[in-house]
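call fold(seq) -> tokens
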Amino acid sequence: MTVTVNLPSRSLVLLSGAPGSGKSTFAKRHFLWTQIVSSDRCRAMVCDDEENMAVHHQTYSLLQHIVRLRLSLGRFTVIDSTALERKHRIHYVSLAKDYHFHPVAILFDVPYELCVQQNERRDRRVPLEAIRHYHAMLQETKRSIWEEGFAEIFVLNAEQIRTAQISFRDKEPKERDNKRRN
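ret:
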């Protein structure tokens, strides 16, 4: 069954799910590369190594700075990060509201086994222990996210992730069809 995710152009969209759930692939398929603020890309920008978890603080400082800049300019923004810690999600909801943006969560509800399979096909593989840990956090997130202040929440299963359509309620972000890839 195809799901249509219908968004206002003044949205801050948070992609949330375990490593290997398809967040980055989904983002690349549906949004301009300039609209996507990726924790992996920010980590690489900070230290030239997107696998270096020792720069966690610097990575998220950069990510939040870029998000604030985009929102201050009224730009549609997508955060590509696991976002499975409640305090981070609540922070992004608050940030969206500070800039009069529509906070949206897209939760990637993918079975652990599929995350592991998809992880094996990636260039940068996440350790299985990390996938297991984040997948367990996903289960709590599925219960708590409804009370965190998001204007809309979409929970997508594996099939819906593959077939979802994105549409915009109002003026669509510029140059959407011209620059999908980075």
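Residues 56-72 form the longest helix (17 residues).
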